[in-house]
Structure formats: C-alpha cells, structure tokens
C-alpha cells in the first residue's frame, strides 16, 4: 500500500475513533496514539525518506492535511465532550430550593448572662459604664478598701478562697468599683458604673449556695446624691426586671462599706403583695442590698468625702433567675446540662 493510501486509512480510522470516543480521557488517549511520537502518523512520515524528491512534497502536504484534520476533529470533539460534561454536571447538581434545609441547633446566652445583659442595657441607657475587673484579687481591694480591715469581724461573714496571704479569689465585685473610683477624675464629672461578674465563696454547695456565683454591683459618686436617688434607681431596676406594677421597700441593714445600709424588697411576683408561700406571707421578696457609700471607703480611694458622696447596691443574678423562673436549686446553673439551659432560649 502506498503512503497516501496508508494515510487515508489512518485518517478514516482516526476520524471514526474520535467520533466514537465517549469521554475526555479516552479522547486524549486517542490523540496521543494517533499523533504522538510513537503513533502511526509519525511512522508513516518516517517512511517519506524512501520517497523520490518529486513525490515527497505532495505526500508531505497530504500528510500535513491529515494531521491538521485529525487535530481539528479532536478539538471539535473535545469541545463537544466538555459541553456534555458541563450539562451533565449542571443537571446533577441542580438545587431544589423548595426542599427543607437541615436544621441547625441554635445556642443562646446562659440564662444568668441573659439577666446580666438586661441589667447592663438598662444602666447603659442611664449613662452608667459597665466595668469588669480581675477575679484573682488583692486582699487590699477586696477587703481593706471596702472598710474591712484585717481584724474586722465582718470578714467572717464571707469565707474566702485565699491563694496567698494577700491574694484571693474575689468574694464580691466591689474591688472593681474600688479600683475604678481610685482612678476616676471627679473634676471631669460623676462616676456612674456597674460591675457584673463571677465571685467565689468557700461555701459547701447545696440548693441555695454555690461556691461560685454572680453579682452585679452598682456605684454612683457625685455631689448631692441622696437616698432618694438610690430608691428611684432601684425602682427603675425592679420595674425593668419584673414589670411596671412592682414596688420597692427599703429596710435598715448593715454592710461595712455603706452607711446607712438597706436591704431592698420587691413586691412578690407570685401574689403581687397579697401574701403566699413564695414570699412567706409577707407580700415582699428580698432582692438586693444597698446603701450610701461609707466615708471611709471614699477616703481610702482618695475621694474627698466632704464634697462627694454616693450610693451603691449589690444584687445576685442567680437569685433573680431562681425567682423569675421558679428554679429551686442554684446548682442547675453551673452543671451545664443543655436540657436545663435550653429552656431559657429567648428565640423560643
Ligand atoms: C464600693 C462601695 C460600696 C456594694 C453593695 C451590697 C450592698 C449587697 C449583696 C447582695 C446579694 C451581694 O449578690 S449578693 O451576695 N450585696 O448587699 N453590695 S452595697 O457596695 C459597694 C461596693 C463598692 C466601692
């Protein structure tokens, strides 16, 4: 068979192989087989050496046409196959947007944090700053500066986790107020702050005691602050947390850092003051402690107690949460059982 016939046969075979190739990798194999260095076309071209000078250009031209035709046909088939592959992919991967999605479990802030957030929002709205401080504290800020010197009997009121003689786990958030008051420049205006956070006491855990719980304390220092300001502030707080119909009643009490000191009761949410088992038939529920800041506390923080004075209060969000949701064991808040905690999902 002459070279031209060989080439024709090769072309025909090649074209039919290309036409029948079902996928891109097969097509590539065909290309390598037909046109590669070891392929039949190269082989035929090599045979051109034996042709006469006159025949060579003619056969050469013919061979080039065959190669170009095969190359162009392979390219055409490749485009077709790529299009087919894309169409198949689009059909397979089409998304039915009407199908229901996979539900994603949503978390929420811890129930105690939800109460703290609500208190923060209220006080931020009244121009207070929210200040946080260290949980590992110096005895000086936790006790001394709050009018509780080393020999003070009231230190027994709260057993404390000591780390060294001078360093302890804070037993209240008051040291944050003491630190802030010490730094505050009163010539620039009053100090209005709340300090939410975790505190620690050496209590044995039971239904109403936890060695770790939360406090939110508030402090206002300015000229001419009165007990009326304190009562109004506490009423605003009670109405924010419980509702408009709630009243506040102050009873005398004692704290080393305030004088006079008071305990604040709020109308019982269960019987609205009529008397029930929740409020032990008094119509009132004790919710926080407060008072006018003791002059010693002001002096120790370097504040002129003749010119400036103020009020402070402290409350326990754990107790608030127990009252609001009827939780009878404080330990539930610290066990991190999602079955318990997910009940307080604001998103419903
Ligand atoms: C400074 C001056 C005064 C903070 C106060 C209370 C009264 C109080 C307790 C209530 C329940 C804490 O959560 S609880 O255990 N607190 O009764 N706290 S006045 O007085 C301060 C704080 C800081 C510099």
Automatic annotation (TrEMBL):
An annotated GO BP: phenylalanyl-tRNA aminoacylation
Recorded GO MF terms: ATP binding; catalytic activity, acting on a protein; magnesium ion binding; phenylalanine-tRNA ligase activity; transferase activity; tRNA binding
PROSITE patterns: AA_TRNA_LIGASE_II
Location, primary (coarse class): cytoplasm
InterPro entries attached to this UniProt entry: aa-tRNA-synth_II, aa-tRNA-synth_II/BPL/LPL, Phe-tRNA-synth_IIc_asu, Phe-tRNA_ligase_II_N, Phe_tRNA_ligase_alpha1_bac, Phenylalanyl-tRNA_Synthase, tRNA-bd_arm
Keyword Aminoacyl-tRNA synthetase: yes
E.C. number(s) listed in UniProt: 6.1.1.20
Keywords noted in UniProt: Aminoacyl-tRNA synthetase, ATP-binding, Coiled coil, Cytoplasm, Ligase, Magnesium, Metal-binding, Nucleotide-binding, Protein biosynthesis
Cofactor note: Binds 2 magnesium ions per tetramer.
Subcellular location: Cytoplasm
One Gene Ontology term, aspect cellular component: cytoplasm
Coiled coil regions in record: 67-96
NCBIfam families in the cross-refs: pheS
PANTHER family named among the record's database cross-references: PHENYLALANINE--TRNA LIGASE, MITOCHONDRIAL, PHENYLALANYL-TRNA SYNTHETASE
Protein's name in the database: Phenylalanine--tRNA ligase alpha subunit
């Amino acid at each position: 068979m002459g070279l031209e016939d060989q080439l024709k046969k090769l072309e025909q075979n090649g074209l039919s192989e290309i036409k029948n190739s079902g996928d891109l990798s097969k097509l590539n194999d065909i290309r390598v087989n037909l046109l590669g260095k070891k392929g039949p076309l190269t082989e035929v071209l090599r045979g051109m050496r034996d042709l006469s000078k006159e025949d060579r250009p003619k056969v050469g031209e013919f061979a080039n046409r065959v190669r170009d035709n095969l190359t162009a046909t392979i390219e055409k088939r490749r485009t077709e196959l790529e299009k087919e592959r894309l169409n198949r992919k689009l059909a397979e991967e089409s998304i039915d947007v009407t199908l229901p999605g996979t539900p994603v479990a949503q978390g929420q802030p811890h129930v105690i944090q939800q109460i703290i957030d609500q208190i923060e929002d209220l006080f931020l709205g009244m121009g207070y700053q929210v200040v946080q401080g260290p949980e590992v504290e110096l005895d000086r800020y936790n006790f001394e500066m709050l009018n509780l010197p080393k020999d003070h009997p009231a230190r027994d009121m709260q057993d404390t986790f000591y780390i060294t003689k001078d360093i302890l786990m804070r037993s209240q958030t008051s040291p944050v107020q003491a630190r802030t008051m010490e730094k505050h420049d009163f010539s620039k205006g009053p100090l209005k702050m709340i300090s939410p956070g975790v505190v620690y006491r050496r209590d044995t855990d039971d239904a109403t005691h936890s060695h770790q719980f939360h406090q939110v304390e508030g402090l206002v220092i300015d000229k001419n602050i009165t007990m009326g300001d304190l009562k109004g502030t506490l009423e605003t707080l009670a109405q924010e947390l419980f509702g408009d119909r709630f009243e506040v009643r102050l009873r005398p009490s004692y704290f080393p850092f305030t004088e006079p000191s008071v305990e604040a009761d709020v109308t019982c949410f269960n019987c609205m003051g009529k008397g029930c088992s929740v409020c032990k038939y008094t119509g009132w529920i004790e919710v926080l402690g407060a008072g006018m800041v003791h002059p010693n506390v002001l002096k120790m923080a370097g504040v002129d107690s003749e010119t400036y004075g103020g009020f402070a209060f402290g409350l326990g969000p754990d107790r608030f949460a127990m009252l609001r949701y009827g939780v009878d064991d404080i330990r539930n808040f610290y066990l991190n059982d999602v079955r318990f905690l997910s009940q307080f999902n604001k998103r419903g």
